[in-house]
Amino acid sequence: MDKKGIFIAFEGIDGSGKTTQIKKLFEAFKDMGRDAVMTREPTDGDIGKLLRSYLVGEKKADIRAIAPLFAADRLDHITSKGGILDLLDEGKAVLCDRYYLSSYAYQALDCDIDWVIEMNSMARELAKPDIHIFLDVPAEISMSRVESRGETELFEQLDRQKRVRENFFKMFERFCDSESILVFDGTKAPDILAQEILEAVRKYL
């Protein structure tokens, strides 16, 4: 795909600091005079709102029924008017909080991983990130951060977070030749970590 912008997906277990680092990179881009957009998954669209109702426990369903909704929300995120493809075509830097590597890592706890990968194959074909930035933190630290927020979601239990972190690294090994994945120590001070991320991202600009 011939695109003018740059697409950066931030990944990590819950409480890894993605939101903080996306905001810091957004500000850094702005300081450089580069037009950037922050977005997230699940999205704020109709499918994304439905997904969030399952994640916070307002609705109940088996994860195998919920998994395809993530893929559908992602495709809508990519192809809708003003979505990822449009933003990249406009030359913007798209900074996304979670993308398909999160689906692989989280949904592989309950679903066949090859099925999950296949569901997301069109998203990967249409809008493959230029960089995946993974913020690595121990599950114990992530859960202490999550609990400080006052509410937890479907996947936010210590044992599951440990297994999700393991799954991320399995996916990194599996896709090391086809995806650009950068791993950072998410336990570092936010400003120091932000500078490390910015220095790494500059190489792709």
Brief summary:
The protein has 205 residues and is an alpha/beta fold. The chain contains 10 helices and 5 strands; from the N terminus they run E-H-E-H-H-H-E-H-H-H-E-H-H-E-H. Strands 2-3-1-4-5 form a 5-stranded parallel β-sheet.
What distinguishing features does this structure have?
205 residues; 5 strands
Describe the protein's architecture and organization.
This protein is α/β, with parallel strands linked by helices and 205 residues long. It contains ten helices and five strands. The longest helix is centred in the middle third of the chain and has 17 residues, at 63-79.
Overall SS class = alpha/beta
Q: Any low-confidence stretches, pLDDT <50, length ≥5? A: none
Can you give the helix content as a percent range?
40-55%
Element string (H = helix, E = strand)? EHEHHHEHHHEHHEH
Rg: 16 Å
Q: How much strand?
A: 5-15%
**Strand order in space, largest sheet:** 2-3-1-4-5
Query: Based on CA inertia axes, which overall geometry fits?
Result: globular
Question: Please, how many helices?
Answer: 10
Quaternary organisation of the protein chains: single chain
* C-alpha end-to-end distance: 17 Å
* Biggest sheet overview: 5 strands, parallel
Number of separate strands = 5
Mean pLDDT: 93
